[in-house]
Every structure is written in structure tokens, then in C-alpha cells.
Amino acid sequence: MSIDVNAMPKLGFGLMRLPEQDGNIDLDHVCRMVDMYMEAGLNYFDTAYVYHGGNSEKVIKEALVKRYSRDQYMVATKLPAWCMNSEADRDRIFTEQLERCGLSYFDFYLLHSVEDGGNGDTYDRLNCWQWAMQKKAEGIIRHFGFSFHGSPEYLVRTLDAHPEVEFVQIQLNYADWTNPVVQSGKLYDILHARNIPMIIMEPVKGGTLAKLPQELEARYKAMRPESSVASWALRFVGSLPGVMTVLSGMSAMEQMQDNIQTFIHFEPLSDSEKELVSEVRAIMLNVPQIGCTGCRYCTDGCPMQISIPDVFRAINTMDLYHEEFRPKSFYGGLLSQGHGRASDCIACGQCESVCPQHLPIIELLRGAAARLDV
Fold it and tell me: What pLDDT, on a 0 to 100 scale, did the predictor assign at position 291?
């Protein structure tokens, strides 16, 4: 059974940031959000085994499955590599997910956060790809794919190794299009060239693109006074060919209402609007950076095997995009590959003696260590 892309809603309800009250998910609030979403003719719900400490899947059962007939909605959830040690864990988790959600099958099932090394290796070692296809053959997974947080090169290798994959979920937004760690634009180009349907996560970058500096918001308002700032980010992603569904992790009725308004009468970005988004992005990213060009002259002679350009890449990403999780995860990947920590620098000066940009590398590594090795 292939995916009927035309039957997919453009807006998906992500259940990772649900409203809470007194430390618990506010079920009544979620039910009202589900009702508003369904009444708009939308029906794709995205959850995961680990969201809200496992309670997101349970909310699916209470807010959706018990209140609507099975043919009215689609549910997607994910298998987490970091919760598995053996092949037996695959079925244990899958059975638990079905029970939590109150379902007999999942419409969409994903390997969660496939990336270079780490999770990717775990899915390969535990034969999760073949296992998922068997579940599909049994009819308890209708469509199989994966969410991705790795490099473009690893995405190509993964797709080459697993042509059975029906869709891929990636992080994509206009701020991350050229992000050197996320590399949204390159991931999009790879998938679009292969005609692989895409589900998009973080279109508003965790809310970052829903509230901008006053100067930038004024630019958007001048062109579309009645449109929210968040709608620009959603329309940027939704305008891209090959994008099947755009997930939004909505946590309030106001967000739900605004997002529905954006997608029910969806308008792709015009050429002038695309130019404005590019201008806003350029201003957002116009902050001081470490001027490393990535020539790697510094790495060959480093006695501590510090991947200096990649350390600076992580720091630049933290400063440009105002986030820590992904750059620190990227840095952790460097360490797992045997590279030294920024704090391992012994100030021998070899790197500075060969740097074409004449960067104060020793001082910069000290600053990086204070932010990354904590």
C-alpha cells in the first residue's frame, strides 16, 4: 500500500509540546485542540514513545482513539534506538505502544532520529529495518519511514541501503536552511531529487520563528498585516515541492487556530515574499562568527586529535541559531569518533602556526571548552 500523498493533510498535529497543568498534560485542553483540528478536516497525529515521558502516546488513546472512529485519523509514532539493547526490545516497545495508544495498527511508523553512528548503528545492529518491514507485511504498520538528524552524506547512504523506505521526516525551516549542523537545504534537495515524500518537523524552530525582533516582525507585517509571524515560517516550508505534511507541536488553542487558518486556505509564498524571507534570514544570521574556513591545516599536527574546525562549527551554530542541543549533540559525535575535547588543548601552538586566517585558536578553544565541556 503506497502513500496517497494527496490524501495527506498539509498540517500535522505534533504531540511533543502538549499543554500542561500542575506538571501533567492538560487532557481537557488537548481534547479541545483535537476537536478543533479534526473539525478543520485535518487528521495526522504525530507522537513518539519518549514524548512527555511516554504520556503523549497515552493521550492519543484518551483524546483521539476513544472519541473518534478509526477511519477518521492517522497516527504516527516512533521506535527509539536509545531505549533498546536487544532485538527483543523492538517487540516489547511496539506492543507497549499499541497498548498505550489503544490501537491495533499504526498508520505511520518511524525509526526515531536516525543519525551518523549512535542511533543509526543501533538500528542496523538490531535489524530494525527488516523488522519494520515484517510488521508492515503483517498489516500492523501501514507505512514505514524514519526521522533524520544526520549528515547529508549519511542520508544518501541510508536511502541507498533501504529503498523500501516510503517517507522521511526531517527538520526544516528557513533559519536552518543553511545551518552547518542541521543542513536542512541539503537534506531537502536529496529527498526531493529522489521523489521521497517528506514530513517536516520544527518548521517554526521550537517557536523561535514565531516571535522575532521587532524590526523583523515589522517587515513581515508591512507586507501581510493580518498574518502572524509564525505563518511565514509555515508557509515557507509548505510551499516547497515534495513536502507532504508539516508538523507543528502546538501547545495552545491560539496556536492551533492560527496554524489552521494558515493551512486551510494555504497560499504558497510569492516571489516577493520569498525575497523578504531571505532578507529576514540574512539579518537574523548576521552575527559575529569564528572566521574558520574549514581548511583543516590545523588538524593533522594536533597532538590531542582535536577536530578544531568542527568545534568552531558547533560554536558558530550555537551563536547563530540560539540553540544548544543540536550543536552539543554534533560535538558529542566528534568525541565518540575518537576526537579530542576542546579542553584537551595543551596550547602547543601548532595549529596557530599553520592557520591561514591567523585565528587565536588556543584562546578560541578555551572559550569553546567552557561552553561544550560542561
Answer: 78
